[in-house]
Amino acid sequence: MGYDRRIMGYVRKILTDNHPTLRKVAKKVQLKQLADPLFQQLIDDMFATMYDAPGIGLAAPQIHVSQRIFVIDLADDEPDHGPLVMINPVFTDTAGSVEATEGCLSVPGYVGEVTRYEQVTCTGFDRFGKKFTVSGDGLFARCLQHEMDHLNGILYVDTAKNIRPAETAEEQAVAEAAQSGGGSLQAAELGNVGALSH
Ligand code: ZN
Fold first, then answer.
1. What is the 150 CA–ligand 1 centroid distance (Å)?
2. Which pLDDT tens digits describe the chain residue by residue (198 residues)?
3. Which of 34, 59, 66, 156 is a good FRET partner for 18, with 20 to 30 A between their CA atoms?
4. What's the predicted TM-score (pTM) here?
5. CA–CA separation, 178 vs 194, rounded Å?
6. In whole angstroms, what is the distance from residue 49 CA to residue 97 CA?
């Protein structure tokens, strides 16, 4: 069960600097595409790119593919939320409101506070075309919303308050996609704080 990190795809370049692809509304995936080995390779490449960054979420537009796909893996922080692929995701329910600090692999070096739904329910398709639904709150809900925004050409800086260069160790951890073992950080696209030694 779950994605085997040893089966690596190819690390692709992550778009930054408001690249036009980051600003497009991504196209729905046709489910017949899933049978194409190149499509399956794309998903493997998304995981490889996310782990390499390192990050906890990546949307296809971030690697110059304007299609409605994102991957998430919060397992380092939340064992229940390991590798996840969502194709053509939609939110079917949302509740509450909560503010937290976020960073983004496509806006490196910065953080800001974003208000998001506290809880979301998201329905989509897995890489084999099976429909499924996930619900959650906390970091998981935040990550789903951050990645969904990427599919709609939205970056967190569009709505964030107090956007600033990451300065404290915690902010740098968020901005550089790093994640503490303590699990206290609330941010999208985090990685491993162990890599942040300075
Ligand atoms: Zn992002």
1. 7
2. 455 655 579 999 999 999 999 999 999 999 999 999 999 999 999 999 999 999 999 999 999 999 999 999 999 889 999 999 999 999 999 999 999 999 999 999 999 999 999 999 999 999 999 999 999 999 999 999 999 999 999 999 999 999 999 998 888 878 765 333 333 333 434 433 333 333
3. 34
4. 0.86
5. 8
6. 30
Identify the structural domains of the chain with CATH numbers, from first to last: 20-197 (3.90.45.10)
Residues with catalytic function: 147
Q: DSSP string of 95-128? A: E--EEEEE--TTSTTEEEEEEE-SEEEEEEE-TT
CA 43 to ligand 1 centroid distance, Å: 17
Question: Which pair of structure tokens corresponds to residue 145?
Answer: 């919303």
Half-sphere exposure of 20 (CA within 13 A, CB side): 0
Q: H or E segment at 141?
A: helix 138-151
3-class DSSP assignment, residue 138 = helix
CA of 121 to the centre of ligand 1 (A): 19
